[in-house]
């Protein structure tokens, strides 16, 4: 599973992406966030602000109860500020 | 036509494409990097995007507005990377038979880009990097069904 | 800046003037002569104006919108004389700190020009001259107090 | 008093302007229209449609009860169709 981070999440983590293999009981975004938070202090710091973090699965914006699959590309980011 | 690019936008070239067709009205929007914000001088901004998803979201809005407002043509270009104050960031051009449609479509596209396209803006000030926050006002403005 | 002129409008030149200042948003409107209307093909249009009064009315609106929508710059150019299909007729450019003001001002100016500036359009069709009628819809749209 | 005509009024009259000296009892635009209508068949034809004719005195749009003076420039025209 590929995880991508943008904006301040990337800055805080010091990385823009990582490949992970969560266990079978990690079924949706919410589970994934909890699981990732336990990976490192930096991860915990990022996901403490999870209310202001948005998520996309394979380029589709989703909410946190959305199911995840092993081959998904999952992105975490703050609200968009282009234009 | 949509483009997500690093280099400056050549506005007159894009306008020429819009004016080629047999239309009655062209509306343009050009977003420009400002030299300062409320907290001080901005040396440059940096725009990050999500390659793949960005193009997809912009393409979606192009298809939607072209149909909804019966456009003859529509051009959307958004830059990423480092952008200096005074440089263009985004260009939206709409061509239609009548002005109301060209105006509505153009304004809708830029409103949409602000909140629905995966871009993130960072302002580089003297000693700090500011991750620009989205505006509630902008998020409320955009309502789409497609 | 306002101009009432016979020659084609050089849109990229005008846009350059708007982009010079320290602004965040530029909106353009370009009106284009259409090749036909509901009753047939148009060979060319001819725009008549009232020299002296025309400039005065356009100047009035420039002053009004610049103040009302806090514009950094505003350019209004309207042509007169013979104009072929596909050629530009009118150019409105507004530059402001924020996009909403630039959009509102630009749309207001073109609405105003339609009903408050002394121009008259004639469509030259194959064997007839059509004095274009004003649209009730346009007249209702514009409300000004100054 | 200078009278200027535009658009179809000019076309119908065959002239774009004329200098006139209306008598002292011609005090406003309404009076002037009636007086001009009597000048020729063409004038009468034009001013038959006076409801759809607009008027300016010295570049100011006015209504038909507006007073006129001898040195005024008075323009008659249909509603504007620029833009």
Give a topology summary:
The complex is a heterotetramer, with two copies of chain A (83 residues) and two copies of chain B (146 residues).
Chain A: E1 2-5, H1 7-13, E2 17-19, H2 29-37, H3 41-47, E3 54-57, E4 60-62, E5 73-77
Helix pairs in contact in A: 2-3
Chain B: E1 2-5, H1 11-20, E2 25-32, E3 36-37, E4 40-41, E5 44-49, H2 53-68, E6 73-79, E7 81-83, E8 88-96, H3 99-116, E9 119-124, E10 129-131, H4 136-141
Parallel strand pairs in B: 1-6
Antiparallel strand pairs in B: 2-8, 3-4, 5-7, 5-9, 6-8, 9-10
Short structural description:
Chain A is an alpha+beta fold and 83 residues long.
Keywords for this entry:
heterotetramer, A: 83 residues, Ubiquitin-like (UB roll), 28% helix, B: 146 residues, alpha+beta, Aldehyde Oxidoreductase, domain 3, 10 strands
Overview of this structure, please?
The complex is a heterotetramer, with 2 copies of chain A (83 residues) and 2 copies of chain B (146 residues). Chain A has helices spanning 7-13, 29-37, 41-47; strands spanning 2-5, 17-19, 54-57, 60-62, 73-77. Chain A is an alpha+beta fold. Chain A has a single domain, classed as Ubiquitin-like (UB roll). Chain A starts with a strand and ends in a 6-residue tail after the last strand. The relative contact order of chain A is 0.27. Chain B has a 4-stranded mixed beta sheet with strand order 1-6-8-2, with helices on both faces. A 4-stranded antiparallel beta sheet of chain B has the order 7-5-9-10, with no helix packed on it. Chain B has helices at 11-20, 53-68, 99-116, 136-141; strands at residues 2-5, 25-32, 36-37, 40-41, 44-49, 73-79, 81-83, 88-96, 119-124, 129-131. Chain B is of the alpha+beta class. The longest helix of chain B has 18 residues, at 99-116. Chain B has a single domain (2-134), classed as Molybdopterin biosynthesis MoaE subunit (Aldehyde Oxidoreductase, domain 3). Chains in contact: A-B, B-C, C-D. Chains A and B meet through helix 1 of A and strand 5, helix 3 and strand 9 of B. Strand 2 (25-32) of chain B pairs antiparallel with strand 2 of chain C, so a sheet runs across the interface.
């Amino acid at each position: 599973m590929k995880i991508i981070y943008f904006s301040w999440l990337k800055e805080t983590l010091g990385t823009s992406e990582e490949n992970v293999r969560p266990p079978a009981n990690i079924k949706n975004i919410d589970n994934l966030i909890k699981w990732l938070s336990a990976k490192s202090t930096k991860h915990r710091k990022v996901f403490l602000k999870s209310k202001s973090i948005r998520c996309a699965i394979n380029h589709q914006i989703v909410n946190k109860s959305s199911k995840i699959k092993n081959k998904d590309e999952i992105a975490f980011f703050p609200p968009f500020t282009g234009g | 036509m949509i483009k997500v690019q690093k280099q400056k936008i050549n506005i007159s070239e894009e306008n020429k494409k819009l004016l080629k067709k047999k239309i009655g009205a062209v509306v343009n929007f050009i977003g420009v990097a400002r030299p300062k914000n409320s907290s001080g001088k901005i040396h440059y901004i940096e725009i990050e995007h999500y390659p793949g998803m960005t193009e997809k979201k912009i393409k979606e809005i192009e298809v939607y507005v072209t149909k909804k407002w019966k456009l003859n043509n529509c051009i959307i270009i958004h830059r990423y990377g480092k952008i200096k104050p005074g440089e263009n960031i985004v260009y939206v051009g709409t061509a239609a038979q009548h002005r109301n449609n060209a105006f509505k479509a153009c304004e809708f596209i830029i409103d949409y880009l602000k909140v629905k396209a995966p871009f993130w803006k960072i302002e580089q000030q003297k000693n700090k990097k500011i991750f620009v926050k989205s505006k509630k006002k902008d998020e409320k403005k955009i309502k789409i069904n497609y």
